Amino acid sequence: xxPNRLTIVLIGLMGTGKxxxxxxxxxxxxxxxxxxxxxxxxxxxxxxxxxxSDDGEPAFRDLESEVLAExxxxxxxxVIAGAGGVVVREENRILLNEARASDGVLVVxxxxxxxxxxxxxxxxxHRPLLDEDREGTLIRLSEERAPLYTSVSDxxxxxxxxxxxxxxxxxxxxxxxxxxxxxxxxx
Length: 187
Ligand code: S3P
Fold this sequence. Notes:
Blueprint: E1 7-11, H1 18-29, E2 32-35, H2 36-44, H3 48-55, H4 57-72, E3 78-81, H5 90-103, E4 106-111, H6 114-120, H7 134-152, E5 155-158, H8 164-180
Helix pairs in contact: 1-8, 2-4, 3-4, 4-5, 6-7
Shikimate-3-phosphate binds near residues 84, 127 and 129.
């Protein structure tokens, strides 16, 4: 396989390990790693928390949509760590599904039980949505977003009881398998 155009998007709730897994997968396939939160922060020139407090969540979501669209247009392939809310806007889900259908982009949903995520997100500053009732919020977001994640994903992995290493091993097998049976446009 020559994965120079391989594009993989990781989606899932906060704390599922998208950024860490993205870095490992990108190194494995020798492609770029893009992180929508980091690109949004660069564009706004301030941290996610300050975008939420100064400009409001809709302004954050506008930047997130812009950045996602640009990431999906990368000509060289990449592993894209999408922030947890990247599926909330319909326009983003349409973009993801178009990229899957026409460019062979693979979307991977990292799924985990909300109570596990509540522990994993205990530290970390870029998640203002979890400032109050972290576990309750994660339970609610998990219920609200599960159908949205499902509607755009090719591969689902339950990461609740797995180490990052075992998630990556499993994913590399699943991605290689998916590429073997894909239409060949992605690689
Ligand atoms: C959010 C997820 C966060 C960050 C922001 C909102 C969400 O990113 O974009 O706090 O709505 O799920 P991570 O998924 O990288 O934590």
